[in-house]
Amino acid sequence: MKPVRSQGPEMRSDHRRSWVPIFVAGSLVVLLLALLLPRPKPLPEHSQPTRPDLSGGHLGGEARPGPGDLSRPHFGRAEALPAESAEQIVARRAAQFARSRRDVLRRIAGKLNIGVPAEVEQFFAAAEAGDWEQLRALFRKMMAERSVQPHPPELDQLWAPVLATFNALEEAHLWPAKEYLDYGNAILDSLKPGMVYVGGTDPGRGIPELLNETRESENHVVITQNGLADNTYMDYLRFIYGDRLNLPTPEQVQSAYEGYVADYQTRLAHDQQFPDEPKQVLPGERVGSDGGEGWTAVINQGDQLIQVSGQVSCVMINERILQMILQANPDSPFGLEESFPLKSTYADAAPLGPIMELHAPNGQNALSADTAAETLAYWQDRVQQVLADPAAADSPDWLRAYSKLTDAQANLFAARGLNAQAEEAYRLSLQVCPYATDAVFGYVDLLTGQNRAEDALAVAQSAAKADPSSQAFQDLISRLQGAPAAATGAANKPPP
């Protein structure tokens, strides 16, 4: 739980995701009331480059030779046809992916002995037919239904394959087709044999997931760290990957919630007992009787209700569950595309093409100055390719996605004390997307941590110039200009 700017568990900034999971286990009852995974607004239709936007069953918004109607029989074939354009390839594979997710959904329904709601069937029919407007309308309708209690329980039980389908096809609607394929293949081609891929952002999950499912070569296990706190998503993973990946039981997921609440209470007690010391509770963490907007879990511990809310808390619980998965699969390699920084994964991580390898061979020695230099050379070349692409000017989603990949490796370098390499990676990230929030705040943190307040202010001012509407950048400038904390590395990134 897409830019790519990291503003939600799946890094998007507006309306584009809502989860309402329900979790009941043992003495701990977790009611996941709402999991909002916001996303950036799409461009106006007239400003988008040609892409397989699934509108009206055609590829792109204009009449073109070989329109690539998603309902054509040949879209069910796994191999690319010789004369296919990039738009046709994406459209064919989008329809194929939708069919595969509908098949999974029906098998889940059969296992649970429940019916498939008519609107869910209509959703998948629209996905296969390439009717983007109908697909989006049905998805929004179902999200609205799930936000109201009570609602049909089948929507929750069958939601994961619906969400996976919408996520992958929405990215196909937003991205130019060639760039969609290039991005997804760059990630998949970097994976080692048998590697589990963990995709955090909407494009970082959805695009590789679709291409992985519809290709003839090795099919990797593909999961997202941002859904792990949702029991319906965990049930979905157990159903499709239970024979390939050791996954936490409901009781173990319950323990992740308990562990997070206990840790939060310890950190809160520190902050109250030692008010002059640096705060340990992060901005945006909310645990107590009064929740906030977005993702919420109500935890019943004995006779006390504890409400956990906000995406910061959600990310921290997801991180705990991801660590459980890593520990339960010690012989499986893992590749990670980051949304929010998961600092507990950095100790033995190393760059792997555009992503990171977790538990890399040689552990902490896997990331050296030489390795970082090779990674920077990779990104210098890739950034030039991206900026030289004619589609770049009209594809902010694409640019944010590449900026985010670079920013994630900058975060890794910074965490491992490779400050010069981290600074160069942040610069490359901002070269691709000058208003990338994560890169701006990460770069400012790096600079203020080195007592380079003037350089940090220049970075913030440059970002504000690129995105004058960003209140976060204006607030950052004010803090850097006036707050003593600016000289101590406290950039105070706003909560997601």
Description:
By secondary structure, the protein is of the alpha+beta class. The chain has a domain at about 40-175. About 50% of the residues lie in helices and about 10% in strands. It has 16 helices and 11 strands. Strands 1, 2, 3, 6, 7 and 8 form a 6-stranded antiparallel sheet that branches. Helix 1 crosses helix 6, helix 2 packs antiparallel against helix 3 and helix 11 (about 370-390) packs antiparallel against helix 12 (about 395-415). The radius of gyration is 22 Å and the shape is globular. It starts with 17 loop residues before the first strand and ends in a 14-residue tail after the last helix. Residues about 1-50, about 55-80 and about 485-490 have low confidence and may be disordered.
Shape annotation: globular
What's the alpha carbon Rg, rounded to whole Å? Answer: 22 Å
Q: Beta-sheet strand percentage?
A: 5-15%
Q: What is the distance, rounded to the nearest whole angstrom, between the alpha carbons of the first and last residues?
A: 11 Å
* Stretches with pLDDT under 50, minimum 5 residues: 1-50, 55-78, 485-490
Number of helices: 16
Mean pLDDT: 83
Number of strands: 11
Judged by helices, strands and strand pairing, the structural class is alpha+beta
Q: Specify the biggest β-sheet.
A: 6 strands, antiparallel
Encode the helix/strand succession as letters. Answer: EEEHHHHHHEHEHHEEEHEEEHHHHHH
Q: Provide the helix percentage.
A: 40-55%
